């Protein structure tokens, strides 16, 4: 195994895990980083699918007690049933639109310039939402109704455009819907489980022919780095939102997006 290639895998895996659950677009960071590292092509696309799976497993591990509680209570616990129903409602809009537009998005929208533009626009949207958002009326994810879940799900659909950020779209959608920052952040985390499993599963199924035994160590390194970085990022963001708003992420997006636009401008 090429040592330099292995280092690239670790770096990209760490970047995926560290950014997947922050409102700064992990896809955007991966597109830009992969271009700079010259790690592109079909093999790289399959690698990105694998490390995204590592990141979502970090969420499952972090909330393993809640997951077990919900699964165990599906047959008799109304709260567990309502929670799963809300996740299903929030999951559907992006799933339907994604299936219809998946090929077009992959073919035409995955480029550093489109990602950079989305980073900048998304940064300004975060600033506007933080300024005009309604007063929080839902303190915990278990207090959400189906209408709250639907609004978050519709917001998640915007994240199909690379660079928007799935977590950013869902968290901001939650704030606009009246969720508190902790509730919006936690629901975004839980919603990532079915959303990312479905997306990575679909992509992996379509790209099975690209999986090769000689890539096992490369993919395992990226997967492990994404999992560990994801665990740290989730805990850090939950601690952060208990005391701060999301404006710092907005400024980061705007500055990064502007720099990328300058760097990649033809």
From TrEMBL:
It comes from the Bacteria. InterPro entries: UppP. Its EC number is 3.6.1.27. The chain crosses the membrane at residues 43-63, 83-102, 108-129, 187-205, 217-241, 248-265. It is an enzyme of class 3 (hydrolase). One of its GO terms (molecular function) is undecaprenyl-diphosphatase activity. It is a multi-pass membrane protein. Keywords: Antibiotic resistance, Cell membrane, Cell shape, Cell wall biogenesis/degradation, Hydrolase, Membrane, Peptidoglycan synthesis, Transmembrane, Transmembrane helix. It is found in: Cell membrane. Its main location: membrane. It catalyses: di-trans,octa-cis-undecaprenyl diphosphate + H2O = di-trans,octa-cis-undecaprenyl phosphate + phosphate + H(+). HAMAP family: Undec_diphosphatase (MF_01006). Bacitracin is thought to be involved in the inhibition of peptidoglycan synthesis by sequestering undecaprenyl diphosphate, thereby reducing the pool of lipid carrier available. Catalyzes the dephosphorylation of undecaprenyl diphosphate (UPP). Confers resistance to bacitracin. Belongs to the UppP family. This is Undecaprenyl-diphosphatase. It comes from Thermithiobacillus plumbiphilus. The gene is uppP.
